[in-house]
Amino acid sequence: MDAHTTPVEAKEPSLHRRILEDVEGKILSGEWPPGHRIPFEHELTEQYQCSRMTVNKAITDLVKRGLIERRRKSGSYVTHPHAQSAVLEIHDIRLEVESLGLPYRYQRRTRLDRAAKAADRRLLELNEAVRLTEISALHFAGKHPFCLEDRLINLEAVPEAAEESFTDVAPSPWLISRVPWSAAEHRIRAVGADARAAELLAIAPGTPCLVVERRTWSGGVYITHVRLTYPGEMHELVAEFAPTHPK
User: Fold this and answer.
1) Which of the four pLDDT bands, split at 50, 70 and 90, describes residue 17?
2) pTM across the whole model
3) Same domain for 106 and 150?
């Protein structure tokens, strides 16, 4: 660079981009939770000292991204995000949350090694001598509970689970990385949240929830049973299939 050349200064982002990123940042950080009404367009126009058209363009882009929704005569609100999980897959809840553009957090609540009860033996087709690891955990999307996990692990099939605290790692990815599963069964139900689920998921008792129960086994031996409870308005299940063609 010669003595007469001056560096080119970084270009300031456009007002449209600045408004979009500011609003998006507040949503993704959880500062503006689902259901929060964002400032009216005339309020944003005054705040950013720009035209109504510029604000409208930013809001429209956020609507297209699914982060906010417009309600006639009421304003614009942060949407309740819907995560999708495939019915025929064993999915990682972390990926569900991250697909929403939200930070993921896992919290193990309780862990207990115990003998299988009669209901457990029927559920996992176990003999009376088997011991289980019982885990309760929460998965968060941003600041808000996303899913309640209640799991049983058959220690006869996965003895190393007795040495794992599951404090830092969720059971599903831990199991997938260690135990080759050969088959799984899903059961899907809609239920009203009981008192325990309502408290842990920070929702009102009776709120519709989607419950996914899964049994996984390997070589004819059941590995685990998990019950995943999602607030219904935040989750949907997707399955892809093709018609069966006659031979």
Assistant:
1) confident
2) 0.63
3) yes
